[in-house]
Design goal:
With about 400 residues, the chain is of the alpha/beta class. It folds into two domains: about 220 residues, Rossmann fold; about 130 residues, Response regulator (Rossmann fold, 3-Layer(aba) Sandwich), CATH 3.40.50.2300. Strands 2-3-16-13-12-11-9-10 form an eight-stranded mixed beta sheet, sandwiched between helices. The N terminus and C terminus are likely disordered.
């Protein structure tokens, strides 16, 4: 039995706010991904394969994000390969572990770019890691498709090789702050991860607060891949906010949220999507995450009434029967759908440039409840945002 709570709260400005209790400890035991070494790269023995490369965390404190994202992408790529591939050519995905540390991402990117058969980069995970690779990617004129980051620095018009699927952190945070203000949580603090990801979130949070004529009670930081959150905790408790915008991955977010609850804080905590919903819940004591908000950039992965969700579930069951569904793996699946659409349009013998042109040709593509829109001067495919709140109640697909 899956444990969730579902019910639409309201619709406002095209953004659906949905209250879903995501996960219980019983379900989380089903969500453990199998080791990445359990399966070889797709198309490994096929010299005609379409080669995609990615750098993402597959080990270390933030590994759950990379493992889940890759698992969803593999589910779709394997489905495509079972049907004969793209124009008769199988997809080969090469995944290199960077532990969510930028220096290793640079090493991995250089290694991937040395391959003569590399067609595109796909599904990098994280802002600071993707940021350091951007100069190499643009110089090599290799498309980077669907990085898992909503940072503004990847949405600059001069970046001709980057194609974003997910919406921006600015839009996520605007929805989060709007919800806090609607619920009379005006005493808002900002906590951000002390790197490029967090800085982008900080800028977005300040802009969102300013739109309501508000200023943060306090601004404080946490460190990437660290659960040492003592200073941030003290800063927050000193001002006792009733709303917190938290821009961090799950390691520090879980540690800080747990510590706040232990200290008696009743503040409404809101996280951006990159936190990783299942990973956040798993990292906290049972029941402690109830009520915490998380913005999502893909639809609810358990709602089979949405056609693309039903197909995602089917593909994931065929690819990885031991694991369950989730937002991060669903994002990986949708990202894989986006790049294969580009590959289909690029023809029998795609090049990097023809793939770029093919992706730019995507106009109002409906995957079955999730739309993609790209263009020559628009490399941001989606503006979907939905707010979810953790809790627990029996729910079955």
């Amino acid at each position: 039995m899956l444990l969730f709570l579902g019910g639409h709260l309201r619709r406002s400005s095209g953004i659906t706010l949905t209250c879903w209790a995501l996960l219980s400890s019983g379900l989380l035991t089903l969500l453990q991904p199998r080791p990445v070494t359990a399966q070889p790269p797709l198309g490994e023995e096929d010299p005609s394969a379409l080669v995609l490369g990615q750098s993402l965390p597959l080990s270390g404190p933030s590994a759950q994000l990379g493992l889940d994202y890759r698992r969803g992408a593999l589910a779709w790529f394997e489905a495509v390969n079972r049907e004969g591939g793209i124009h008769g050519r199988k997809i080969k995905l090469i995944s290199l572990d960077d532990k969510y540390e930028p220096p290793q991402t640079l090493i991995n990117t250089r290694q991937l770019l040395k391959r003569n058969d590399l067609l595109a980069l796909f599904g990098y995970v994280g802002t600071p890691t993707t940021k350091v690779a951007l100069p190499l990617i643009e110089a090599a004129k290799v498309p980077l498709v669907a990085p898992m980051t909503g940072a503004s620095l990847l949405r600059r018009p001069e970046l001709r090789m980057v194609f974003n699927m997910r919406t921006s952190y600015r839009q996520e945070i605007a929805a989060m702050v709007d919800e806090l203000v609607r619920d009379a949580h005006h005493r808002i603090a900002i906590v951000y991860q002390d790197d490029a990801f967090g800085q982008d979130g900080l800028d977005g949070a300040l802009a969102a607060l300013n739109s309501h004529g508000l200023k943060p009670l306090v601004i404080t930081t946490v460190q990437r891949n660290s659960d040492q959150v003592g200073k941030a905790l003290d800063d927050l408790m000193a001002v006792n906010p009733n709303g917190i915008v938290l821009v961090s991955a799950y390691v520090s977010s879980a540690a800080l949220s747990t510590a706040l609850r232990d200290r008696g804080s009743k503040a409404q905590i809101m996280n951006v999507s990159f936190v990783g919903t299942q990973a956040l819940q798993k990292a906290m004591p049972v029941g402690e995450a109830n009520g915490i908000g998380v913005a999502q950039v893909v639809p609810f992965p358990w709602n089979r009434w949405i056609p693309v969700v039903a197909d995602y579930q089917r593909c994931l069951r065929l690819s990885d029967k031991a694991s369950g569904f989730g937002f991060t793996s669903f994002e990986g699946y949708l990202a894989a759908r986006m790049i294969t659409e580009g590959l289909e349009r690029a023809g029998n013998n795609p090049t990097r440039q023809s793939l770029v042109q093919a992706l730019e040709s995507i106009r109002d593509l409906d995957l079955g409840g999730f739309r993609l829109q790209l263009g020559r001067n628009d490399h941001d495919a989606s503006d979907f945002v939905e707010l979810t709140f953790l809790g627990s109640q029996s729910w079955e697909p």
